[in-house]
Amino acid sequence: MSGLGTILTAIVTPFDDEGRVNEESFVALMRHLADNGSDGFVVAGTTGEASTMTDEEQLGLIELAVNERPAGKTIVAGTGTNDTRQAVYLTERATELGADAMLSVTPYYNKPSRLGIVRHYEAVAKATDKPTLLYNIPGRTATNVAPDLLAELAQIDGISGVKQANPDELQMIDGLELYAGDDATFARTLDMGGAGGISVASHIVGNEMRRMVDEPERREEIDASLRDVYETLFLTSSPTCTKAALNMLGHGVGGLRLPLVSATPEEGAVVRSMLERHGLLAGAPA
Fold this sequence. Notes:
Elements: E1 7-10, H1 23-34, E2 40-43, H2 55-68, E3 74-78, H3 84-97, E4 101-105, H4 114-126, E5 132-136, H5 138-141, H6 147-153, E6 159-164, E7 177-180, H7 186-191, E8 196-199, H8 202-214, H9 219-225, H10 227-233, H11 240-248, H12 265-277
Parallel strand pairs: 1-2, 1-8, 2-3, 3-4, 4-5, 5-6, 6-7, 7-8
Helix pairs in contact: 1-2, 2-3, 3-4, 8-9, 10-12, 11-12
């Protein structure tokens, strides 16, 4: 198992009725997840809606997570952006705040060249003495980091792993720990000898995902039984359906910040049906 853990939940950021970060709800959710399969948390990542948070909010949430972490759990700070100077600043501050590692997404929108990507990650890795995980998600960044470039980036001191969200290129790279970036590839990543997964579904079915780690002989069966969970949570832009599910389960994570919007009644009905199929609504608020 990686020193960061096998199941790292990409934790949502709860908001209150005024759209402010709900710190009390965040801490309660983190503790709940720690008791239900999670080894650690990616804080202020994509699922955490970091793209609509101020630097103060983002760093404040990382600090809160570090200070309130359940015993033995790790905190990976989402510090990536498409401006290298900003990514360096966030990485430096998250390091000072005590995060265990950084998750740094490929610069998006400006579509840097191969050399630009290398230079970007050299600067980010130099900004911290903590491990840095690359995050390859071409569906959001418009840039794919191919395996040969990942192998080159693995030579940079401090680059220790990759969250791979391109299922077509899920493979082991020398010098990089492999984390599944999609729940649907978690079982395959474990079978390959990868470090684990940075998960969204673990908000809802963390104990079942833990069983995939602890019971490899049943991994395929358990994974097949959770396929509808993976699909439902990504029925529309994440974390829309994850927040809907958590609210139905009584966790009070609130809504989303524009341009993301809360689940429609139709989407909510699909989420509720999934939770009912898995027997998760028993005892939850109506």
